[in-house]
Amino acid sequence: MALPLSSGPCSDNLLCTTSCQDQDQDLDRVLNRPSPEQLGSLWFSRDFWAIFLCLLVGGICSSSSTYFQDAICQQMVQGTVEDFGGQRLWASVGWGICSVMVGYLIDLDSRDKLLFDYSTPMKIFLLFLLADMVVVGFWKVDC
Questions:
Q1: Over the stretch 5-15, which tens digit does the pLDDT of each residue have?
Q2: Cα dist from 50 to 44, 54, 121, 125, whole Å
């Protein structure tokens, strides 16, 4: 692959070239490029379908969570409807802060690794999920 350099006094005459060996397994792992043996059996692998089903169920469950959050927030500010926007605002601010924090932790944990290490966000997710279940379990709901 040849790329022209776009800066400098003689950029028209210079080309940056790179080449990749077909046997470079580290590069294949980083690019998520399947081997020829894996390519034909990808659709039939148990791992593929397990991940696919987890993503499908997770997407279905999380798509309805926004409506539940709005209903719970509306019930919490029942007497003062004008506080609804403030409650939702601080929920979004908290979500944004946690996203930046978890992204930083991923970078911190993956410093010396070839691929990103997502074990830290999974642990934080489980911790927040358990805390959420405990808090919601003690709420009194008016039906």
A1: 455 555 555 66
A2: 11, 6, 20, 20
